Amino acid sequence: MYKKLTVPGNQISLLSKNGILRDKSFYIAIITLALPIMLQNLLAASLSFVDTVMVGQLGEVKIAAVGLANQMFFLVILIFFGISSGASIFFAQFWGDKDIKSIHKTLGLALTIGISCAAIISIVSIFLPEKIMRIFSPDKAVISVGAEYLKIVGISYTFSAVTYIFSAALRSTEDARTPLIVSAISMTTNAIFNYLLIFGKFGFPQMGVRGAAVATTGSRALEMCLIIAVSYIKKKPTAAPLAEIFSFTKEFTAKFFKLVSPVILNEMAWSFGMVMYKIVFSRMGTSIIASANISESIQSLFFVVFVGTANSAAILIGKKIGEKNQKMAKSYASGFLVLGLCMGVVVGGLMASFSSLIPRVFNAAPEILSISSKSLLIMSMILPIKVFNMHSIVGVLRSGGDTRFSLILEITSVWCVGVPLAFIGGLILHIPIYYLYGLVGLEEVYKLIIGARRIRSGKWINDLTETHLPAEPIINSLSGTEIS
Question: How far apart are CA 218 and CA 459, in angstroms?
Answer without folding.
Answer: 45
